[in-house]
Fold:
Amino acid sequence: MSVTSMIEQDRQISAVIAEERPRLRNFIRKRVPNEADVEDLLQEVFYELVEANRLLMPIEHVTGWLFRVARNRITDMFRKKKPENFTDAATEDEEGALLHIEDLLPAPEDGPMDIGMALSRLAYDPKNPSAIAGAILAARAGVRSVRDVVSSEMWECLNVTGLGLNSHRRSAERLGPHIYFRFVRERTALFFGLAESTMSHDDAWRFLILGRSLERVDMTARLLLARMTGSRHQLGWLTVLHACGAHESFIRTHGWASEPADVAEFLMLDRLFPRSVLHALSTAEQCLLALDPDDAVRSGTGDPARRPIGQMRTRLEYADPKQLEADMPELVSSLQAACVQANRAIAKRYFSYSAPVAWAQEG
Structure:
């Protein structure tokens, strides 16, 4: 399916959702007492509409189809007779204080974290901004507040993605987490493809690319650090390549008979691969210079965000590949520190807000 077809499909779905949401919510609310269940069912129904369109299923009357799906989902929910949600369960301690189930579970430092706990905290938790779901929902809320800056296609893509998270989580719990991860990966790729082709390459675009570049530097550094932990759970080089989307590019560049040291060199120093640290640092530095062209002075730089990025970029430009493996721990630590320093400088310069003035009335 072409990008144009996907854009048109998302536009049609968004129009149907906007038109049918109020009536469908009232329909479900009359039959389901819990408001959270109402929202979950509503999102599940709309996601089934998304899937039906993607699979080119014939739907003659959309409104009737939506209400029929909603009725079936309500019936399925009551048939399951789900037990009380652990998140809502609570008890009292000896002093009468209310304790939720999270307070009763052992802390992570008290024992090993299994894959279910890791998926819940790092992938599915909508309230954790560091989790996949939390990051997508935060991005959706952020884009909603700047609708005049991004294109309608970008907003529709992100909105449909947010609506599909709950349904894909339920599918992942039955079939495996790869269902959820593949959905997120494809939708994020579509989002940035739409941003590339439908958004003016102005300052708003530069901030988007700047944030993505710094995130790539930080995440690649973290993956390399996970590879160097020395524990029995450390990542293999092949896993690191797949996690960075670099496996095929690496094979085309270095061939199958390559050494493990070539992987670190490729992810750190390659000038052509867009997710390499050097490429991401160069892109971030170019964005910062374009945001403040007056900073291109004859000597030095006055931009506190551009300085650590440029220093790390220069260091990698002239790094000795033979010494890369030995210098890797200190280099990864320096990269993370540079990203933190740049993030703080960018936030302070471009996104700092003054607190509202509170007027006091005399007397």
Q: What stands out?
A: The first strand starts at residue 90 and ends at 92. The longest helix spans residues 3-29.
